[in-house]
Specification:
With 100 residues, the chain is of the alpha+beta class. The chain has one domain. The protein is built from two helices and eight strands; from the N terminus they run ββββααββββ. It is globular and about 35 Å long. 31% of the residues are buried.
Length: 100
């Protein structure tokens, strides 16, 4: 299981239940963010640096969003239109929101 920590934030790799990869970010015990990356975005826009995994990229992308976001339980999806050259190009507030 992938697991990351930074200060009061913890991240966990999620099991795949669709055509996406995802990680969950908690602040203390509260679920703050689930960041999903679509299969198409993974195939066309996400570039994972050597020595890292796709889930490391998701964690590194999700953590700043979780720190800025004040809405617990937020679920966002990164699509192929939101990422280029390995970087998120769409502001997180404009990413597709999913229902929990």
């Amino acid at each position: 299981m992938h697991h990351w920590e930074e200060g009061q934030y913890k991240g966990y790799k999620m099991e795949n239940f669709g055509d996406y990869a995802a990680a969950m970010v908690y602040k203390g015990e509260q679920k703050m963010l689930e960041l999903r990356v679509s299969g198409t975005a993974i195939a066309t826009g996400v570039r994972v640096p050597d020595g890292k995994t796709l889930y490391d990229w998701i964690w590194e992308t999700a953590l700043p969003i979780a720190k800025e976001n004040q809405e617990a339980g937020l679920i966002l999806t990164v699509t192929s239109h939101d990422v280029a050259d390995g970087k998120l190009t769409t502001h997180w507030k404009n990413l597709r929101r999913e229902k929990s």
